[in-house]
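Researcher: Can you fold this with 2-acetamido-2-deoxy-beta-D-glucopyranose in place?
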Amino acid sequence: MRLLLLSPVIHLLLFLIRPSLAVDFLFNSFAGADNVSDVLLINDARVQSSVVRLSNDSVQWSYGRAFFPSRITMRGAAQTNSIALTSFRTQFVFSILPQIDTSPGFGLAFVLSNSTSPPGAIASQYFGLFSSKAFPPAFPLLAVEFDTGRNQELKDPDDNHVGIDLNNIESVITQPAGYYNSSGDFVPFRMRTGQNVHAWIEFDGINLEINVTIAPLGVSRPSRPLISYRDPNISKYVSDEMYVGFSASKTNWIEAQRVLAWSFSDVGAAHEINTTNLPVFLPESSSSRLFAGAIVGISIACLIFVLIVASACYWCWWRKKKAEQQVDEIEDWELEYWPHRFSYDDLAQATDGFSDERLLGSGGFGKVYKATLANNSEVAVKCVNHNSKQGLREFMAEISSMGRLQHKNLVQMKGWCRRGNELMLIYDYMPNGSLNRWIFDNPEKPLEWEHRRKILTDVAEGLNYLHHGWDQVVIHRDIKSSNVLLDSDMRGRLGDFGLAKLYQHGEVPNTTRVVGTLGYLAPELVKVAVPSEASDVYSFGVVVLEVVCGRRPIELSANEDETVLVDWVRNLYSKGTIREAVDERINGECSMEEVEVVLKLGLACCHPDPTRRPNMKDILALLLGRVEPPIPQ
Ligand SMILES: *[C@@H]1O[C@H](CO)[C@@H](O)[C@H](O)[C@H]1NC(C)=O
Ligand SMILES: *[C@@H]1O[C@H](CO)[C@@H](O)[C@H](O)[C@H]1NC(C)=O
Ligand SMILES: *[C@@H]1O[C@H](CO)[C@@H](O)[C@H](O)[C@H]1NC(C)=O
Ligand SMILES: *[C@@H]1O[C@H](CO)[C@@H](O)[C@H](O)[C@H]1NC(C)=O
Ligand SMILES: *[C@@H]1O[C@H](CO)[C@@H](O)[C@H](O)[C@H]1NC(C)=O
Ligand SMILES: *[C@@H]1O[C@H](CO)[C@@H](O)[C@H](O)[C@H]1NC(C)=O
Ligand SMILES: *[C@@H]1O[C@H](CO)[C@@H](O)[C@H](O)[C@H]1NC(C)=O
């Protein structure tokens, strides 16, 4: 409650030249702030223990916005016919803390908006402000994004950047997060660690320029801004009066986006925020930090010691690694693993020195090249980076057992090669590429229904083999249409065992890192992070829906209730109009009863309760036409 001191100090002055109200306020804390009279909390935003939390952890698609309750006059009477706007300055302190540090992030945005509810905003991504890249709202909206997730589709440079958005989620300018120190060097830092970040924004309404500066709390204000963006067009995105505040959103992945303090002024410098007693939100494990004050001295001493030891170790390691890379030596343990070892030189020659022209794609685990071996056979070479020898050895043990998996519906592994800590896996080359290309990138020549059904059956056979056909259960963990490859006979084969792990039958797998692809992940994985046969079945169900409906699992350009494929189909099913979901391109060319059966099978696989999903044996039997379809609930 000590933090209440200055909050909120709001001066509303009558300005003489412009018949508008000047706005100048400081929230050094939000303790006791009242909705509507102090701050306007939209949707899931709440004031919680003196800070504003923008999203709600227990809501799956959550978004929230917090605005200053009255609009700011951005174009006074004197300015109506010019492009000039009101200038303002603001500073605030925010904290972004994902629950799982490897999960995709979202971040938050400082926003000027004509309305507290921008039309078309979706609740999952895009800071709860935009609908999608393809449909920018025809709406005055200007945002400064503090983005902690990378969305390549939007040309995000990385998962830790600051950008300016004009009515469009695709930023007009972005910069990696960091600041320029007093000697002019760029010092990068990560925003999604929970540490408090101090941000300053200056908006020059005469020259139409926005400056954004950020620094970790405790670093004094950098004199050079991180972003300085000048563009007369800014005027188009600002209406006469605008709400000013913050917005954020999240999906399954929990991320706490907090605003701790905020000051704003359109008459002069914004009030300085007193940062001495701001709360700190760090991951649970570092909560001992609260005692930091007392042990700071000891820590520094320890740190120096650790640094010396660490750099010594690093130096040894580096020398060793260097030596390793020079001699492509074979270590004893490698001989245990199956004999098919390729030489690095052969692979380099077969891929023209790993040239970009040979690149087939780059996935989560590394790049894949097309290689032509000396005997003219074509293979795909997947390069996997691994950072420790121990890890590599375990990985090899796994991979070698994978090498023994043989099935007509799996992409066959042919061999491997190691160089330093880089591992190369050699697979059969699949001339027809991946299934998603056939479904989505080929609108002129869509796949016929018979083909689609055949490929789904192939995938089911492959997956059934992994789950039930071997002495160990193999959980694939990353089933998606881009991992289904088509061979020269258009037969579907499951690829990418890079993520798969082996489990003994009946043994409880333990893993703490969630792997997989958004859109295909079973809902229970977010809570328990333990992949199972049922979670594979879920992902398979998503692929089935994708193939039958000709839609991606998450279609951001669709209406809000059509964004998530599984939910959309389930809705149509409950309305009794499931046939509307079927891809128009196959309509009419086949029996709709048959298509409907497969669609319902897909839904049954995506049952939210893992225990009620069918297993691969039943699914396969159904696809082969041997049993009656299940009823999805
Ligand atoms: C705050 O007030 C607005 C406007 O009355 C309302 O829509 C919103 O739900 C309220 N938020 C909370 C958290 O009560
Ligand atoms: C978050 O959402 C849940 C479920 O809707 C609700 O019970 C809870 O009160 C919300 N939490 C806050 C802090 O609003
Ligand atoms: C901004 O909002 C106001 C009030 O809701 C509305 O009258 C005005 O038309 C909006 N301006 C634009 C450009 O949409
Ligand atoms: C600024 O950062 C650079 C690189 O991190 C560092 O070498 C330099 O000492 C820093 N300057 C000051 C004044 O801290
Ligand atoms: C923005 O930054 C530039 C470059 O440092 C500076 O010249 C300009 O005066 C700044 N503008 C404002 C409004 O602070
Ligand atoms: C402003 O908008 C016009 C037309 O939309 C465009 O041609 C121009 O490049 C924009 N200016 C800047 C600086 O982006
Ligand atoms: C900041 O707040 C602390 C107590 O929370 C107080 O002791 C200190 O004087 C304040 N500093 C300024 C500059 O107001």
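Model: Folded with 2-acetamido-2-deoxy-beta-D-glucopyranose in place. Residues 114-115, 139-140, 239 surround 2-acetamido-2-deoxy-beta-D-glucopyranose (ligand 3) (CB under 6 Å).
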